[in-house]
Design a protein that fits this description.
Chain lengths: 350, 785
C-alpha cells in the first residue's frame, strides 16, 4: 500500500493506482477530457494536470502513478490556467462549427440545418414543429441574417432558408411535437466553435454533404412559394455545417466549463477541413479530433477495421482503414467508435 | 520481384512477437525500393498479426520511411545547427532550383534525385554538409552544386564503398595513420587513402597504413599522421591526393631522409602542414602529442575518447593491447556485482544523454529487479542537430562501448544487450556490426565470458529517425513496433521496460566512460570535475569557431576556455556572441557569461542545459531570433504529437516567432511569447516539450533588445530575410560575376559599370554576396534606425 496526501487529506492506495483514482476515493473531482474509463489513459489533453508539492512537478493525474509520500494539490490558480490553456490550445487546432452559422445568426436560434434535413427527408410535419414556438414575424423583422452567413454562398448562392420556412408555415401538414427534435434545438452550451472563412479546397468537402447539381431553386409558383418537390430540392443544397455531435461533445462541454475562447492562440496555417465518408459506417472529420486515441484502442486488434494516427507533431491525424466488405462486426466496431469519440471527429452519417 | 513471404518469415523466426519487427521489416522494404509500396504493406498484414493501420501509424511516424517512390539517388541536405548557421537553407534552396522543384515536389522530373532536409548528418565541422546516397560533401557552397552533382554521378559509376578494408603492408617500424571517421571521409580521406595506396605501389614503398577512428580535430581533416619508432613525426592537415607523393618521398624515400626537425612554435595553427597552402610545405615536423603547445588537446582529458586517433577502431587485438577489456575481465572474474555498482556510484558518473541522472543509482535500481529476462540498451539515437559525439564514439571506439555495456549487464544481472543506433549513421552501424562479429569470434559474446557463467548477447536495432526516440520510454516504444510516443514515468524502464521487462537504458558516452572508471578507480574519476558534476564530458564543438571538432573536457572548465583555448576563438575575425549549448533542449549563453562553468548545475541556472553535448558557437552575424526559431522549428516538427502543449503550444510559439522575424510583431507578442513558453514548459508531458521553450526563453532573457529591435523592423544581425535587402555599393568594379550567378536574374548590369539589384526580383539567396570579389555586395536593413 502507498500513502499519499491529496488536498491535505491522507489516502492509502494499492500500488499502480493513478492519482486520478486516488482522488476519486477521496471524493475529489479532477476535470478530465481525453481520459475515458475502461481505456488506458493517453494523457494527451493535459486537462487533468495536478501539482505535486514535494517535487514541484506538474503531472497528468490520469496516468501519473501514486508514489509514497506524494503531496498533491488538485486546484490552484496555476493549474486552472494550465487547464484552460490546454482547452484553448485544443480549440486553436479545432476546425469546424459547433452550430451552423445560420442557426447562430438566427434571432430565434432555429436549428436550420436540422430543419433542412427533415425537409429533404420529406418529414414536413416534424420540420414544422420547429416553428410552432416561434413567432410568425421573426423572419420578417430579421432581414435574412441566416442567408447572409450561409456557407453555401461561398460556392454559389445561399440556401433559400426564408423560402423554406415560409414553405413550412404554408404547408397544411400538422406539426408534431417530437421532444427529441425540440430538445436538440435548445442547447444550454454557450461555447460555439467557428473556424472562420471557408477555403477554396474545403468547398469540395462541404459539397459531399449537399446537392451540387443546381444553384438556388426559384419556385414556379411565385405567390405560394415552393412546392414540396421544390422545397426538398432546395433543402438538399444545405451542407450540414453544424456538427453531428454538437450537444454531446466533451471538448465543447469543457470549453464551456472553462469559459474558453477559441481565438486565444491563433496559429498560422490552420489545417484544411476534411469530411471523409466511410459509408455506411461513419464520417470522419479529423480536424475535430483531440488525439485521445480511443478509436485506435477500440480497433487495435482488428485487421478489417482499424484506426491509426498518421504523421506526427502538428500534422498528426487519425485515419481509418477498413476492408470494403461491410459486415456486422464492422458496423458494431464503427458504432463503438462513434459512441466513444469525445468530439465530432467520428460520428454517424445520419 | 523477390519472394516477400520468405522475407517476412525470416523476420517472424527472429522474434516471438510480430510487433517487435515492424520497424526492421519496414526498413528492409524501404532499403530495397526506396519507399514502401502499398501492396507489400498489405502483404505483411496478410502474413502476420500486424494490422495495416499499425503499419501506417508506425511508418508515417519515422522520417526514414516514405510512401511514394523516390528518385534513384537521395540528396540529404543537412540542416543541423552548425550547418544552419553556415547557410544550409541557402544550399537547400539552391538544390531546389537546380533540380527545378516546385514547393510540393521533392523529386526531379527524371526521377534521378530526391531532395530531403535532414536534422543532422553529424559532420558539423564540415558545415554546410550534403550527403548524396552515401557520399558526403562538406563546405558546400551554392555555386558548387552543379559540380557536386557531376562529381557524384561520376563516382557512382565507379562506386567503391569499402572503407572497412584492412590493408596491412608490413614494413619496418613506420606507420601512416589516416583518419576515417565520417568527417574525414566526407572531406576526402578516402581519395587520399587511394592515392596513398597508388603512390606506395609506384614508389615501391611498403609502409603499414592504419585507418584510425576520429582524431577529434575535425577542422583539419583529412588528417594524415606518420609514425616512426612509436613516435609521431609528422601530422599533415587538410591533405589532398596530390600531396601524397611528396609526403611519401619526404619520409620514406631513403632512410637518410629521416630527420626530425623540432620547432618550438607557440602557435597551434602552424603545427600542422597545410599542403594546399604551401607547395613546398614539408619544412616543419612536430610531435604535437609531446609538446604542450597544443591548446586543442592541452585542456582536454580523454576518458571516453582514450587513445583517440591511435586506435584502429576494429582491431580487437590492438584494443586489448591498450588495456581493452581489462576492466570487464576484472569485473567478471574478481569483483562482485555490488562492488562494481558502488564504484560507479562513488565515481559520480551521471547519464551523458542529457538529463544527468546518476548512473550508479540507476544501475543499483536495475540490479535489484527480479525477472527472467533483463535488458541493457545503449541509446545511440543521437538526434540533436549539431551533435555528433555518439557517432564519433561508435565509429572510433566500438569495443569500449560494448565493454561498458557488458560491465553494466554483468553488474545488473542482464544477459541481453541492444544497441539502438540511428539508421542514418551507416558507418557506425557497420563498425558496430563488425565489432560484434569480432567479439563473437573471440568467444566474448554468445559464449561464457572468461570462463565464467556470464554469457552476453548483443544485437543492433536501427532507429528509423525520430528525435523523440532519444527519450527512453519512446525508444522502448519504437523497439516494440509502436510509434515513438513517450509515457509518463513511473513506471521507469528499469522496472518495466522493453516487453515489460526491467531495462537499463544508458547513453553511448556513459558506457564509454565505464571501463576507464573501473580500471582507474572511482576516486581518480571523481577528482576530475566539480562537486556535483564529476569526470569529463564529450562535446561536438562546431559553428563559427576556428577549430571545431570532437572534444572531451573535464567538468568545471569554462565556456571561455573551450571557445578561446580549445576552439581557437571565432573564425573570420568576427565577434563572439554566444554559445548554444544542449541543442534544442538547451539555450544560448551570451559571451558576457562565458565564465560559466560546464557542469549540470551552472548550465541549468543559466537557462541552458548540459544536453547530450552539442556546442555551437555563434558570432555577431547570427540572429538570436533566427536561432530560437530554428530550434523551435526542429522540436515542433519532432514532437510526437501526443500532448497538446507540445503539439499545439510549440506551433503557436513558432507562429509568434515568425511574426517577429518578419517584423510584424508588436510588444504584446513578446509578452505573449514569454507566457506561452512558460506554460509549454510546465504543461508538456515529457522532456522534449518541457525543454522545447529553452532556446526561446534564454534568448529572451539575454538578448531582449534584439527581440525589441525586430519589433521595430530591424534585424541587427541582418539575417532575417523579410527585414533586409541586398545592395551593391560604389566599390563595385562591374565584373558581372554576381549577375552571372544570380538565379533570379535580379541584377541589372553592364560590364565595368556599377551593378544594381532589382529588389522586386531578388530572392535573397545570398549568392551575389558570396561571389563578389570586392565585397561590394552587402545586406542592409530595409528599415533604417
Amino acid at each position: 500500500m502507498i500513502e499519499l496526501t491529496i488536498n491535505n487529506k491522507q489516502v492509502r492506495v494499492e500500488e499502480n493506482t493513478t492519482i486520478l483514482n486516488a482522488a476519486e476515493i477521496l471524493g475529489i473531482k479532477i476535470p478530465t477530457l481525453c481520459f475515458m474509463k475502461c481505456f488506458s489513459a493517453s494523457s494527451s489533453c493535459m486537462v487533468c494536470v495536478v501539482f505535486e508539492k514535494n517535487s514541484g512537478k506538474i503531472v497528468p493525474a490520469c496516468s501519473a502513478l501514486c508514489i509514497e509520500g506524494m503531496n498533491i494539490e488538485t486546484e490552484n490558480d496555476e493549474l486552472h490556467l494550465l487547464r484552460k490553456n490546454a482547452v484553448q490550445l485544443l480549440l486553436s487546432e479545432h476546425n469546424g462549427d459547433c452550430i451552423a452559422p445560420c442557426q447562430n445568426a438566427c434571432p430565434a436560434h432555429i436549428n436550420i440545418p436540422l430543419m433542412n434535413r427533415l425537409i429533404s427527408d420529406e418529414q414536413f410535419s416534424t420540420a414544422k414543429s420547429f416553428l410552432s414556438e416561434i413567432k410568425n414575424d421573426v423572419c420578417s423583422t430579421c432581414n435574412l441574417q441566416c442567408e447572409k452567413v450561409c456557407r453555401r454562398k461561398n460556392i454559389d448562392e445561399p440556401v433559400a432558408i426564408k423560402k423554406l420556412i415560409e414553405f413550412l408555415r404554408n404547408t397544411n401538414e400538422k406539426s408534431t411535437s417530437e421532444n427529441a427534435v425540440l430538445n436538440s434545438v435548445k442547447s444550454n452550451l454557450k461555447f460555439n466553435s467557428s473556424y472562420g472563412r471557408m477555403r477554396e479546397n474545403e468547398k469540395s468537402e462541404y459539397l459531399k454533404e449537399a446537392e451540387n447539381k443546381y444553384a438556388r431553386m426559384f419556385p414556379a409558383d411565385t405567390t405560394n412559394g415552393y412546392s414540396k418537390e421544390e422545397a426538398v430540392q432546395e433543402a438538399l443544397r444545405c451542407m450540414h455545417c453544424d456538427c453531428r455531435k454538437n450537444d454531446a461533445c466533451d471538448l465543447r462541454i469543457m470549453a464551456d466549463q472553462f469559459q474558453a475562447k477559441q481565438r486565444t492562440f491563433v496559429i498560422e496555417n490552420r489545417q484544411n477541413i476534411t469530411k471523409i465518408f466511410h459509408a455506411p459506417l461513419l464520417v470522419l472529420e479529423p480536424q475535430k479530433c483531440i488525439k485521445c486515441g480511443v478509436c485506435i484502442q477500440i480497433t487495435n486488434s482488428s485487421k478489417d477495421f482499424s484506426f491509426s494516427f498518421r504523421e506526427k507533431s502538428f500534422q498528426v491525424q487519425i485515419e481509418l482503414f477498413h476492408k470494403e466488405e461491410i459486415s456486422d462486426s464492422l458496423i458494431s466496431l464503427a458504432k463503438k467508435c462513434i459512441e466513444h469519440c469525445p468530439t465530432g471527429a467520428i460520428s454517424a452519417i445520419k | 520481384m523477390k519472394n516477400y513471404t520468405q522475407l517476412i518469415n525470416e523476420f517472424k523466426k527472429k522474434s516471438e512477437n510480430d510487433k517487435g519487427y515492424i520497424i526492421p521489416i519496414l526498413q528492409a522494404i524501404q532499403n530495397e525500393f526506396n519507399y514502401l509500396p502499398d501492396e507489400l504493406l498489405h502483404e505483411i498484414t496478410a502474413q502476420t498479426t500486424i494490422t495495416y493501420s499499425e503499419l501506417i501509424g508506425v511508418a508515417s511516424f519515422y522520417s526514414q520511411f516514405r510512401f511514394t517512390p523516390s528518385g534513384k539517388h537521395l540528396i540529404k541536405v543537412c540542416v543541423g545547427t552548425a550547418c544552419h548557421v553556415k547557410g544550409a537553407m541557402h544550399v537547400y534552396d539552391a538544390f531546389t532550383r537546380h533540380l527545378n522543384l516546385n514547393e510540393t515536389e521533392d523529386t526531379d522530373k527524371e526521377k534521378l534525385f530526391t531532395l530531403k532536409q535532414v536534422a543532422c548528418l553529424g559532420c558539423c565541422t564540415l558545415a554546410p554538409a550534403v550527403q548524396i546516397d552515401d557520399i558526403t560533401y562538406g563546405h558546400v557552397g551554392q555555386k558548387d552544386i552543379p559540380e557536386i552533382i557531376n562529381d557524384f554521378l561520376n563516382k557512382s559509376i565507379t562506386s567503391e564503398k569499402n572503407i572497412q578494408k584492412h590493408h596491412l603492408k608490413n614494413i619496418s617500424d613506420a606507420e601512416i595513420r589516416i583518419g576515417l571517421g565520417s568527417c574525414c571521409v566526407a572531406s576526402g580521406s578516402e581519395e587520399v587513402n587511394k592515392a596513398l595506396e597508388k603512390a606506395m605501389d609506384t614508389a615501391g614503398i611498403n609502409v603499414k597504413v592504419k585507418q584510425v577512428g576520429c582524431v577529434g580535430m575535425c577542422h583539419n581533416v583529412p588528417l594524415l599522421e606518420i609514425e616512426k619508432s612509436g613516435k609521431i613525426i609528422a601530422s599533415y592537415a587538410k591533405v589532398k591526393p596530390e600531396n601524397i607523393k611528396p609526403i611519401l618521398l619526404k619520409h620514406f624515400a631513403s632512410s637518410s631522409v629521416f630527420k626530425r626537425i623540432v620547432t618550438s612554435l607557440q602557435n597551434k595553427a602552424e603545427q600542422f602542414y597545410y599542403p594546399d597552402l604551401q607547395s613546398t610545405a614539408l619544412k616543419k615536423f612536430l610531435d604535437y602529442r609531446e609538446k604542450h603547445v597544443n591548446d586543442f588537446l592541452q585542456k582536454q582529458v580523454h576518458i571516453a575518447t582514450e587513445h583517440k586517433g591511435i586506435l584502429n577502431p576494429l582491431d580487437i587485438d590492438e584494443y586489448i593491447s591498450k588495456e581493452g577489456f581489462a576492466a570487464l575481465k576484472n569485473c567478471v572474474t574478481e569483483t562482485s556485482r555490488e562492488e562494481i555498482i558502488t564504484t560507479i556510484i562513488k565515481s559520480g558518473l551521471r547519464g551523458r544523454g542529457g538529463a544527468g541522472f546518476p548512473t550508479g543509482e540507476k544501475w543499483a535500481l536495475f540490479s535489484k529487479q527480479q525477472a527472467d529476462e533483463k535488458y541493457i540498451i545503449c541509446n545511440a539515437d543521437e538526434g540533436d542537430p549539431g551533435a555528433f559525439m555518439d557517432r564519433m564514439l561508435l565509429e572510433s571506439f566500438p569495443y569500449r562501448i560494448i565493454e561498458g555495456m557488458m560491465i553494466a549487464a554483468y553488474a545488473g544481472g542482464a544477459t541481453k544487450g541492444i544497441l539502438y543506433v540511428r539508421a542514418e549513421y551507416q558507418l557506425a552501424v557497420l563498425r558496430m556490426k563488425t565489432a560484434i562479429a569480432e567479439m563473437v569470434k573471440k568467444g566474448m559474446i554468445n559464449s561464457p565470458l572468461f570462463n565464467s557463467q556470464f554469457i552476453f548477447n548483443l544485437e543492433i536495432f536501427e532507429g528509423a529517425g525520430a528525435f523523440i526516440c532519444g527519450e527512453e520510454t519512446a525508444l522502448i516504444a519504437s523497439m516494440e513496433g509502436k510509434r515513438g510516443m513517450p509515457h509518463i514515468r513511473p513506471p521507469y524502464p528499469v522496472q518495466h521496460g522493453l516487453n515489460g521487462k526491467p531495462t537499463l537504458v544508458n547513453n553511448v558516452e556513459t558506457f564509454a566512460s565505464v571501463p576507464w572508471i573501473i580500471r582507474n578507480g572511482s576516486t581518480i574519476y571523481a577528482n576530475i570535475g566539480t562537486t556535483f558534476s564529476k569526470g569529463t564530458k564529450v562535446f561536438a564543438l562546431a559553428g563559427k569557431i576556428a577549430r571545431g571538432g570532437l572534444i572531451e573536457v573535464p567538468m568545471g572548465i569554462t565556456i571561455k576556455e573551450i571557445v578561446e583555448d580549445i576552439g581557437g576563438g571565432i573564425s573570420g575575425g568576427k565577434v563572439f556572441k554566444a554559445v548554444q549549448i544542449g541543442g534544442p533542449s538547451g539555450g544560448c549563453i551570451p559571451a558576457s557569461l562565458s565564465e560559466t562553468t560546464i557542469d549540470y548545475q551552472s548550465l541549468t541556472e543559466a537557462g541552458a542545459m548540459m544536453g547530450s553535448g552539442g556546442l555551437v558557437v555563434l558570432d555577431e552575424s547570427d540572429c538570436v531570433i533566427d536561432i530560437a526559431k530554428y530550434f523551435l522549428n526542429f522540436t515542433q516538427a519532432q514532437s510526437c504529437g501526443k500532448c497538446v502543449y507540445c503539439r499545439v503550444g510549440t506551433k503557436y510559439m513558432l507562429s509568434l516567432l515568425n511574426k517577429l522575424s518578419s517584423g510584424k510583431a508588436k510588444m504584446e507578442d513578446l509578452q505573449e511569447l514569454e507566457k506561452i513558453s512558460l506554460q509549454v514548459k510546465k504543461g508538456s508531458l515529457c522532456g522534449l516539450g518541457k525543454s522545447a521553450p529553452n532556446p526561446v526563453l534564454t534568448t529572451l532573457k539575454y538578448f531582449r533588445d534584439e527581440y525589441e529591435a525586430h519589433i521595430s523592423g530591424i534585424c541587427p544581425a541582418k539575417k532575417c530575410k523579410d527585414l533586409i535587402q541586398y545592395e551593391i555599393s560604389t566599390i563595385c568594379i562591374g565584373c558581372t560575376k554576381c549577375a552571372q550567378n544570380c538565379p533570379a536574374e535580379a541584377i541589372d548590369f553592364a560590364p565595368y559599370e556599377k551593378h544594381f539589384i532589382k529588389q522586386e526580383l531578388c530572392i535573397k539567396c545570398d549568392i551575389c554576396l558570396q561571389v563578389c570579389p570586392t565585397g561590394a555586395v552587402s545586406k542592409q536593413n530595409i528599415k533604417h534606425d
